[in-house]
Specification:
The structure holds two protein chains of two kinds. Chain A is mainly alpha-helical. Chain A has helices at about 1-10, 20-25, 30-45, 55-65, 75-85, 90-120, 120-130, 145-150; one strand at about 135. Chain A is built from eight helices and one strand. In chain A, helix 1 (about 1-10) packs across helix 6. Chain A starts with a helix and ends in a 16-residue tail after the last helix. Chain B is mainly β. Classes of the chains: A mainly alpha, B mainly beta. At the A-B interface, helix 3, helix 7, strand 1 and helix 8 of A face strand 1, strand 2, strand 5, strand 6 and strand 15 of B.
């Protein structure tokens, strides 16, 4: 979990590729959950690394566990070190580093949420300018929709004849 | 199960009324045609045509009293094979150096293009009897299945006068122009019940891979939209979430059918920075319509007239 967020914070994951992280944290509608479920299924099928199934729950739990102070609390660190009798200096550093990483991650996530909110008014702008959107020409059907239609609702000819734009 | 019971019932019906074709109601002829494609044993070659494209397809079909087995091999261009076992369809689709295995729900597969339950067809079409013509060296009765409205296409069927098998089917628009056609050029009935042919031709040099599964069943209605009245005769038959190439978000995919034609409705949130798509088009037998409802992109595709895809797109109401 923290590795994922650290990677995000370290820019090892492109922001554009991490929109689902943001989405799963922002929304809890069935569609959003279905989307993460789909991602998981798809990623498992393709054998690519995945986020854990309860990514969102884990994330929320970890965030809840984080102290609400805005800087590492020396007293808290000391008491944590005391609680673990054998904690060496490097152990304390590890805690500090993991906290730093978490804060960095929260900052980035917060920034992304902010970005999304800032970008929100443009949603309405999209609606207003719908007329100025992509116009489909009279002789063209976007292949992604045609293929999706034919795979779930094949017509009698589509079993044998694919559109010219059918991806090969 | 229901399908099989219906088949055997109608097969009995067929036996009891065979030989009286001249006196029977034309809907009974159509009913016999709908069943004959499932219960007869036959092989032949038919030509499938839509737009400027045309392919010959070799078909072999056997019904053993319990299950149907059909293999369709495309003879022109890429050697695609379509195997159908009682409605479970597996397609072996050569793509470059691979053979992609695709699973489909078998429906409207020639010559079984009609459902065996004609109730919804009777609601939306009128049936007229035409002349007798010769197709694939067989005598055929012409039947005209005409749409009662402008929401669906009409069909012209050539039905084997002796065996009731559909020999040729043409889909027509309201200007009587052919949009697509399927027609036997060779046909023989067979007696052998051997099934050793029911397998794909394996190409040892190619890798066989399963098609990526990019849908999940999701019948839940969203709180962000609802559907107003649909065009007459169309009912929802399926709903899923689907990953569409180039889309960040999953797309809700709903399928409607009037018993013969299917229409897909896609609903997805508008994406920041991506221009919404609007417009309409008609390519061959397929209509396309895209518009925007609230902050949703609505896209509709189907083998129906343009007015029908537009009506389905406009049935989506955005709920804030």
């Amino acid at each position: 979990m923290t590795e994922q967020l650290s990677a995000l914070a370290d820019n090892e994951i492109e922001l554009a590729d991490a929109e689902h992280l943001l989405a799963s944290m922002q929304a809890n509608s069935p569609a959003a959950e279905a989307w993460s479920r789909y991602h998981l299924i798809g990623d498992v099928m393709r054998g690519t690394p995945t986020l854990s199934a309860d990514f969102k729950a884990n994330l929320m739990a970890k965030i809840d566990m984080e102290p609400t102070v805005l800087a590492p609390n020396a007293a808290w660190l000391k008491s944590a070190a005391k609680a673990d009798g054998n904690t060496s200096k490097s152990g304390g550093q590890q805690i500090a580093w993991s906290m730093a990483a978490s804060f960095a991650a929260i900052l980035v996530v917060g920034f992304m949420v902010l970005q999304a909110q800032v970008a929100d008014p443009s949603l309405n702008a999209n609606v207003a300018t719908a007329e100025a959107g992509v116009q489909t020409s009279a002789e063209f059907i976007p292949a992604e929709y045609l293929t999706a239609h034919q795979s779930s609702a094949p017509s009698s000819t589509s079993y044998y004849i694919q559109p010219a734009s059918y991806p090969n | 199960m229901l399908f099989k019971r219906l088949l055997s019932f109608v097969a009995l019906l067929m036996l009891s009324i065979s030989g009286h074709a001249g006196s029977t109601d034309q809907w009974q002829t159509l009913q016999k045609m709908a069943v004959a494609a499932h219960v007869l044993n036959y092989q032949g070659i038919f030509v499938c045509q839509t737009g400027a494209q045309s392919k010959s397809v070799e078909i072999k079909h056997i019904y053993n009293g319990h299950d149907e087995f059909a293999r369709n091999v495309v003879l022109d261009g890429s050697p695609r094979e379509v195997l159908n076992q009682s409605g479970d369809v597996v397609i072996y689709n050569p793509k470059n150096e691979k053979i992609v295995i695709e699973k489909r729900r078998g429906q409207n597969m020639f010559p079984a293009i009609l459902p065996t339950d004609l109730d919804s067809i009777k609601d939306n079409y009128t049936l007229k009897v035409g002349e007798i013509e010769r197709v694939a060296d067989r005598q055929a009765q012409i039947l005209l299945l005409e749409s009662k409205d402008n929401l669906r296409y009409s069909y012209k069927f050539w039905v084997d006068s002796e065996y009731s098998l559909l020999l040729k089917s043409v889909m027509l628009n309201n200007r009587n122009e052919a949009l697509d056609s399927m027609a036997f050029t060779q046909l023989t009935l067979i007696k052998s019940m051997e099934l050793d042919w029911f397998k794909p031709k394996i190409d040892g040099k190619k890798a066989y891979v399963m098609e990526d599964v990019n849908t999940i069943a999701d019948k839940q209605d969203s709180s962000h939209w609802r559907l107003k009245s649909l065009p007459e005769g169309f009912v929802k038959v399926d709903q899923m979430m689907r990953a569409v190439k180039g889309k960040t978000w999953p797309v809700t995919h709903i399928i409607f059918s009037d018993g013969l034609a299917s229409v897909s409705l896609f609903i997805e949130p508008l994406e920041n920075g991506i221009k919404p798509r609007t417009g309409r088009s008609l390519v061959g037998n397929t209509s396309f319509y895209a518009n925007v409802a609230g902050n949703l992109q609505i896209t509709v595709v189907g083998e129906v007239p343009e007015v029908t895809v537009a009506k389905i797109a406009n049935a989506v109401v955005f709920v804030k």
